[in-house]
Amino acid sequence: MFTAFWSAYPARNGKKLDKEETFRRYCLIAEAELELVNTAAKNYADSEMIQKGIGIKDPKRFLLDGKGHEYWRQWIEPENKRNDGTNKQNAKRSHEPGEQDPFDKLGKDC
User: Fold this and answer.
1) Chain centroid offset of residue 74 CA
2) Stated pTM of the model
3) Is residue 48 in some structural domain?
4) Residue 60 in contact with residue 20, Cβ under 8 Å?
5) Main-chain dihedrals φ then ψ at residue 67, nearest 5 degrees
6) Is residue 85 part of a domain?
């Protein structure tokens, strides 16, 4: 499930930082909410401001910032004004296609 989140999440300044810390925070989320988190990441990536590269949060802060806010909850529903719906971010893979991502624990086995 984490792999789906990481793939959907947009890069900030061409990079995705702190994968291990993001994974740790992802594992703190209730298993019943993980699909919502992944949906929120996709909606966030598809939003107009993110498509323009404006205000992209690091993924760890999207999940839980230093003040205890779960920013992802604001993105469970897609924004009202949608662009063409495509995710134009081209994140680099940390593994080869078909190879299991070492951070994907096949579910919630964090």
Assistant:
1) 13
2) 0.72
3) yes
4) no
5) -105, 5
6) no
What are residue 80's phi and psi, to 5 degrees? Answer: -65, -45
| Length of the chain measured in residues | 110
Interval 54-85: pLDDT, tens: 999 999 999 999 899 999 999 999 986 444 44
Structural domain for 30, as ranges: 2-75
Q: How many CB atoms lie within 10 A of CB 11?
A: 16
| The three-state (H, E, C) secondary structure of the chain, written as one string | CHHHHHHHCCCECCECCCHHHHHHHHHCCCHHHHHHHHHHHHHHHHCHHHHCCCCCCCHHHHHCCCCCCCHHHHHCCCCCCCCCCCCCCCCCCCCCCCCCCCCCCCCCCC
Cβ atoms of residues 9 and 59 within 8 Å: yes
**30 falls within a domain:** yes
Query: Within a domain: residue 107?
Result: no
Residues 44 and 77: their CA atoms lie apart, in Å, by 9
